[in-house]
Design a protein that fits this description.
The chain is of the alpha/beta class. It contains 19 helices and 11 strands. The chain has a 7-stranded mixed beta sheet with strand order 7-6-5-8-9-11-10. A 4-stranded mixed beta sheet has the order 2-1-3-4. β8, α12 and β9 form a beta-alpha-beta unit.
């Protein structure tokens, strides 16, 4: 048994190569993990969890070839190698491999984390200033980079694959935007607030296909700039306003409808009630709110007892995934009535695999735009997220709520078929889609 298998405590399900030419694990393994230098091993031994492996991969000290999804689908693949370090080994076991560890350089000092890792943050968690800083860190990687990743739609949330896998990513994103519009009951002349509007796709779709007047808000400067350009190119500048603005600073209600798609993950548990209460105040009576958010499938954990993780340090600083029960409670406390809840978990897994394909297919350009470290961060994050959705470790929900009107009226049709019917359903128009994305 190799030293790697001894440290892992079980036969390795992956092929492992080291910089000195040594090899362990089955030749038939779908994945090969290559430790390019001593530092890769030190990173994992000093941080025996996903963060250690992530640091080694981001820094380029460790390479993964073969089926990345296969590596991530079995948590024990990572766990066997990463959860044990020198301190967990028995003295007899340690003594038997001391010479090997010394030769490999595994007993050296703790390596410095890659420059891309965000450890310290300024200000109180989820304050306006800190939220703007961490959101900018995530979304201001570059509009051109996101264009490669997301495709022409520039929609950074899960698609709705009502056409099945035969549909394209663009089909799925069009259908998701249209699903939101139909759930919100949009009609010509209505006012729509798009909270966390991204690059403007939702506001553009609603204005062009449903005749609404939309306001989109974002705290990402690069998103705001491109969203405004896309609005102009789509010919809806007279109906769509894009603001560089925190959701807490929106005061010009009432709105007929509010869409919050993939934004409330940034709000945080401590601010969530305040967030929904603010949305409720901005709605007119019988106005609707649709909140789409990635969600935990487990009760909230005490953050003080949670170890640092890869996503928080490299991808979504301060992001928090709330369980559906937490969201529902906040909806009720805000004085809103839940009318519908739909899980899109499988839809997100499929969407993420398309994004992985886009990134891999433009790898040279992606690394030139954002740097090899950022490209590796995104590949690992997207692939791991796809597996997490597919295996049910996390989910995503669309919660539709209404602000009750006089005598509790909702203003909604009595059946789901009526408010999700084909009346007003915007058919996919390739020509319109191209015009809407001309600036993307």
């Amino acid at each position: 048994m190799s030293v790697f298998e001894s440290v892992a405590g079980a036969p390795l399900p992956v092929r492992v190569r080291c910089w000195d030419g040594s090899v362990a694990g089955p030749e038939s393994a779908a994945v090969t993990v290559t430790f390019r230098n001593r530092r890769a091993l030190r990173r994992i031994l000093w941080s025996p969890n996903e963060l250690g492996l992530g640091r080694a991969y981001v820094a380029g000290d460790l390479e993964i070839t073969g089926d990345l999804f296969a590596l991530l689908e079995d948590p024990d693949v990572i766990g066997r190698v990463a959860r044990r370090d020198l301190r967990t080994l028995g003295w007899r076991e340690l003594a038997g491999h001391t010479g090997t560890f010394v030769r490999l350089g595994a007993l050296g000092p703790r390596p410095k984390p890659p420059a891309e890792e965000l450890i310290r943050r300024r200000g109180a968690k989820h304050s306006k200033a800190r939220d703007a800083e961490v959101v900018s860190r995530h979304y201001d990687v570059g509009n051109d980079f996101y264009r490669l990743l997301l495709g022409p739609s520039m929609v950074y949330s899960c698609g709705y694959w009502e056409r099945g896998t035969a549909g394209t990513l663009e089909d799925a994103q069009h259908d998701k935007l249209d699903l939101v519009c139909r759930k919100l009951g949009l009609q010509p002349g209505m006012r729509l607030l798009d909270v966390g509007c991204g690059w403007g796709s939702m506001a553009i779709h609603a204005a062009r296909h449903y005749g609404v007047r939309a306001v989109g808000v974002t705290v990402s400067g690069q998103q705001c700039t491109l969203a405004r350009a896309r609005v102009a190119a789509a010919g809806v500048a007279d109906r769509v306003e894009i603001r560089l603005q925190d959701y807490r600073d929106v005061t010009d209600g009432p709105y007929d409808a509010i869409a919050s798609i993939g934004m409330s993950e940034h709000v945080g548990d401590a601010q969530f009630d305040t967030y929904l209460a603010g949305m409720a105040r901005l709605l007119r009576p019988e106005g609707r709110l649709l909140n789409q958010a990635i969600a935990s499938v487990a009760p909230l954990a005490d953050p003080s007892h949670e170890p640092p993780n890869f996503v928080d340090r490299y991808v979504f600083p301060d992001g928090e995934l709330l369980p559906l029960s937490r969201v529902q409670g906040a909806v009720e406390r805000a004085g809103l009535e839940t009318r519908d809840c739909e899980s899109l978990r499988e839809h997100y897994g499929l969407t993420l695999r398309h994004w992985v394909d886009n990134l891999r297919g433009s790898w040279a350009e992606a690394t030139a735009l954002a740097g090899p470290e950022q490209a590796r961060i995104w590949l690992l994050y997207l692939a791991a997220s796809a597996v997490s959705f597919e295996r049910g470790r996390i989910t995503v929900n669309q919660v539709l709520a209404v602000r009750p009107g006089d005598r509790g009226g909702s203003g909604m049709p009595s059946t789901r078929e009526e408010w999700l019917g084909t009346v007003g359903h915007a058919p996919f128009d390739p020509a319109a889609g191209s015009a809407g994305n001309a600036a993307a």
